[in-house]
Amino acid sequence: MKIIRSYFNNYRLYMYIGINVCLLIPLTVSSYIEADLMIPFILFLPVCVYLLYKFLVDIPGSMDSTLKLLSCSLLMLSIVLLTYSNLYLSIYKQYGQSSFSGPNLTADDFIYYSVTTFTTTGYGDITSTCSLSYAAAASEMLIGFLSSTIFMAILAAKIARTFNK
What we know:
This protein is mainly alpha-helical and 165 residues long.
C-alpha cells in the first residue's frame, strides 16, 4: 500500500472551500435569478461523485491528522449537500409545486431537504412528487448511505490504528 504523506494539503483544502463558495452563491441569490441552472448541476453531479470517491480512496493512506481529515470531510460533505440542494431548487424552479410538496419552498428548505435525504431521515414535510425529483432524491440517498458507511469504516480503522501505536 502506497502511503501518501499529506494528501489533504492546502491546495486541496482551498479547492474544497472554493467549490463550496461557488455552490453557495446560486442558493443565496436564487430569488433574484430566473435562469435555469438544472443542466449545470446535473453535469456537476459526476464531478461531485468523483471527488467523493477520490476522497474516500485517499483517506486510508493519508498521514494527516484526524482533525484535518474531519475538516476536509465536512467540506466534502457540504459539496455533496450543496450540489443536491441546488439541483432540487432548479427542479422546483422549473416544475413548481408539481415537483415537491410543501408551500413556497426556498433555498433554505432545499438545504434542509438535502440533509434529511442524504442521511435517509426523511421527515416527510417536504417530499418529491415527480419522477425527476424522485431520481435525484434516490441518487442522493444511495450516495449518502454508501459514503457514510465507507467513511465510518475508514475513520474507525484510522482511529483504532492510532490507539494501537
